[in-house]
Amino acid sequence: MSDSINMFAEAATRLFEDKCTKAAHEAAEAGGVQPALWSALVDGGFTAMLVPERQGGAGASMIDVMETLRVAGRYSLPAPIAETIIAAWVLALAGLPPVQGPLTLALGTNAAPWRFSGSTGQWKVSGKEADVPWGATASVVIVAQDGAEAVVGMAEPGRLSAEPRSNIGSEPRDGLKARGRALDGVTRTTSVSRDQVFRYMAMARAVQIVGALGRALDLSVRYVGERKQFGRPLSKFQAVQQQLAVLAGEVASSSAITDAAAANIDSADADLLLAACRARLADAIDKVGIAHQVHGAIGFTREYPLQLATRRLWGWRDEYGSAVQWRERLGRQFVGTPADDLWVRLAAVGMAGAQ
Amino acid sequence: MSISEFRFEPAHFPASLESLRQEIREFLAEERASGRFPRPDRVSMYVDKAFTLRMGERGWIGMTWPKQYGGHERTALERYAVTEELLAAGAPVRGHWVTDRQTGPVLLKFGTEEQKLEYLPRIARGEVFFSIGLSEPDSGSDLASLRTKAVKVAGGWKLSGTKLWNSNSHHAKYVIVLCRTSPATEDRHHGFSQLIVELSSPGVTLRPIINLPNEHDFNELVLDEVFVPEKNLLGDVDQGWHQASTELAYERSGPERWLSAFRLLAELNEALGSKASAATMAAMGRLFAHLLTLRQMSMSIAMTLETGRAPNLEAAIVKDLGTCFEQEMVTVARDIAQTEGLPAQQRGRLVQDLLDHAQLWTIAFTIRGGAKEIMRGVIARGLGLR
Fold first, then answer.
1. Which of A19-23, A219-223, B37-41, B301-305 has the lowest mean pLDDT?
2. Helices of type H across A123-192
3. ipTM of the complex
4. Looking at beta carbons, which residues of chain B come within 8 Å of A318?
5. Tens digits of per-residue pLDDT, B19-54?
């Protein structure tokens, strides 16, 4: 059990506990990011936490970010906090001016990357991407890889054609499209790469997932302690205890592999551990039905908060790499290895950073 | 503290362990090359007394014990690394495995100086095995209901009762029997003692019980007024329950809970070659994800044990998840083998043998060392549900 307390995570817990009310969630689902919530995130230093101090940010570490986003996941924070933190960092490293308001990232796919053309002062962007978080309403930081350099462009809200959609968790996941659309802020950089940004976002979703899984378990434990049937709390039924023990094991596993992946996110083993992490999390999410089962009918309503966690989990499961893609990616790393070498290779995972 | 804050400390293993791993890998490769232990075609460990003696010579039994008792004063993490390597290779370590893992630490903690000097050096050399006498015909998961009883007599105890599911006792010289020495008080765990019984003592009868995979591992142990000398009392009278429970974290959290059927995964992985379908790659990747996760948790507990804390809750989680994973792995492996047409091919034969053997053995995984329902009860208690 970890005794270390993260300062950012602690501040985030206080803020989110206060701000992530039922009303705030309902307002966000009806009308997007709420200005009052956003100001609180900006004032708390969260949105620019990864931006270096000399550029006006908090200069936090990636571990600080992941601990904070874990709390955001736990409180189902209805705003693009992960996207903004990473996008603001990309802008800062690329040397582009900071942008007010919510940010998001358009990273394209390997098959369909964004394409920039032109040169300084006359940049244009083309491409399309589905499911961009808050893509229609946030400022979009577009990242494309061009050999050793990344091309980073900033499109203010409304600059790209948008087709609003949302994921199963009612979070905006909008289609974006551009054909030769002119952009003002574009630059080339070797300070970041598209794959690195993608990896950070995949990691960010992982910690959000762990937070939401913890929330689902906590709500369940609390509920079965309060709810009485047959003259005793549900928690006293072995059938209920055994089910929640299974869910607790899933949450503990998720936490363990996610902590390992986060600790190695910039090491040579980053991709392997991230693949293992995201593949493992999908299986944990597939067991979150236990939380609903022990809640009975109340968990099947929109008014009870369990759905805020579980609907997001089902959405996040396949974002920034689907479960199937992560599994296949991990499998391809090892399948075919001779029997006596397999263990040697597995045992080396995570040792890249060992002293 | 809410349970969602329940976290395994991330494992940071020192790089110095790598040279030890290298050492044991070379030893195992040599053993294999010389034909002293064949490429495993089954998942269970078996007894090879000569192999155990060579392990003792290399200093890989009693690794963490003090040198004065024949140990080697290495760290718990070093011992952990060695157990991983042995399991992954399918080495024939059954003879000394439980003695090294459980008996040694219990003797060190509760044994008299005389007992430590008498037993530990021989265990560390690989010469002597102990078996564990806990379960009885009417006492399985509810161990505290056991009825084997020791009555005080001049110079020692007279022990009577029946122990069941005694693993490996036909290879062992001694068994540590948990028995009643006093009636239960309000605390039903009071009044148990641990006695060291020499299996060749008059009144001891062993009956073999053949297990599901058709192997002789289990025995029934009948104790008929067996005289046990005073000096064979382990620890304190009536405190045996507590003593027997202290090593649970060692027993439950180790890599044997998720590497017991590893040879199946390894041989399947090789037989698949690099041309397997995307669906198979994904199915295998999913298994690797579970394995790597379990390893993180297991290593984390090994680090905690090093600090002297007994993380029994965490250990129950690893045991439950690890054993369930290995059972599921067999099912997934069977389907993968069929999908990829392995049974019809020469290279699929070994996989098929391992599959059949694992199918039978993995049934035991969620029962031995504490049934999964008991593990989940421990976890539920940790959640505050009971």
1. B301-305
2. none
3. 0.96
4. none
5. 999 999 999 999 999 999 999 999 988 999 999 999
pLDDT at site A3: 44
Measured between alpha carbons, how far is B82 from B38 in angstroms, rounded to an integer?
19
Length of chain A, in residues = 355
Q: Rounded to whole angstroms, how far apart are CA atoms A92 and A52?
A: 8
- Compute the nearest-CA separation of A140 from chain B (Å): 33
Nearest CA in chain B to A343: B88
Tokens linked to B114:
């005389």
What is the per-residue pLDDT for B2? Answer: 52
How far are the Cα atoms of B7, B58, B124, B375 from residue B69, in angstroms, in the given order?
36, 16, 8, 34
Tell whether B273 is within 8 A of chain A (Cβ): yes
Which pLDDT value is given to residue B246? 76
Chain A contact present for B267, CB below 8 A: yes
Q: Is A259 close to B10, i.e. CB distance below 8 A?
A: yes
Contact of B386 with chain A, judged by CB distance below 8 Å, is answered with: yes
Burial of A109 (0-12, 13-18, 19+ CB in 10 A): exposed
Q: Which residues contact A4 (CB under 8 A, 6 or more apart)?
A: none
The pTM of this model reads 0.96
The residue among A105, A107, A195, A175 whose CA lies nearest residue A141 is: A105
Q: What is the dihedral of CA A242, A243, A247, A252, to 10 degrees?
A: 0
- Contact status, residue A140 vs residue A159, Cβ threshold 8 Å: yes
